[in-house]
Design goal:
alpha+beta; nine-stranded mixed sheet; about 20% helix
Length: about 240
């Protein structure tokens, strides 16, 4: 992480806010906030993680070609759309401070949470979602009642849902508490509500469903409802063929 740090005034200049000297003046005058706190000269930032505001306006690094690639920790209760005719809460509400119009790559249903990638790069989105790429998606799922080892084995081999067999996947029981099981599922396809339907096949109720990784990109400790830019390394991981 330290290798990604740059001086705050350089970051501001690179973003087109002002020259480095003028940026230093803005910092000294208390006009700059870093992650919610008034910045001081000497502060350094990680452009992919830290949030900088000048006069309460978000400063965003300009990317080549105007392309943006972000990860969002989607909370429950938000639909994965940019607008909704039923006036439900949308993920668009969580990224409204991004000047570019980004859209979701794939989806998470309203009651699911976790890692959602958003972009304005159509070619990138197609690479990540195309079945031929087989980009793994990792989920932590809590179900009740308890899942048996035999059920986990059957699910991993594929079952018929809506007239079509699911692709083989990885199912691992991580732990059990009372009448519930915490499982990890790694899917290689992205059918609508697939995990919920797979569990319903065995009369298992999904209590919590959280996506923690897409390919080799992990959500880590990103807080619910927050977003950050993907690093160049993460973008390469997702588009590697």
């Amino acid at each position: 992480m330290k290798n990604n740090l740059v001086r705050l005034q350089k970051f501001m200049a690179d973003c087109g806010v002002a020259s480095r000297r003028k940026s230093e003046e803005l910092i000294e005058n208390g006009a700059v906030k870093l992650n919610g706190k008034t910045a001081v000269l000497g502060d350094k930032v990680n452009p992919s993680v830290d949030k900088v505001y000048v006069h309460n306006k978000r400063v965003v690094m300009k990317r080549k070609g105007g392309k943006r690639y972000i990860m969002l920790n989607k909370p429950r209760g938000f639909v994965t759309t940019m607008s909704d005719e039923m006036n439900r809460k949308c993920v668009a509400d969580l990224v409204k401070d991004i000047p570019e119009r980004v859209y979701p790559v794939g989806r998470l249903d309203k009651d699911s949470e976790g890692l959602l990638i958003m972009t304005n790069d159509g070619e990138f989105a197609n690479l990540v979602t195309h079945p031929k790429q087989q980009v793994n998606k990792v989920y932590h799922v809590t179900v009740k009642p308890d899942m048996t080892a035999e059920q986990a084995k059957t699910l991993s081999g594929g079952i018929v849902i809506d007239g079509r067999k699911t692709a083989p996947c990885e199912v691992r029981i991580m732990g059990r508490t009372d009448d519930r099981a915490n499982i990890e599922m790694v899917l290689h396809e992205g059918r609508n509500r697939e995990i919920r339907k797979m569990c319903e096949h065995f009369d298992l109720e999904v209590i919590r469903l959280r996506r923690i990784a897409i390919g080799n990109v992990k959500m880590g400790k990103l807080k619910k409802g927050m977003w950050r830019d993907l690093t160049e390394a993460e973008i390469r991981k997702l588009t590697a063929k």
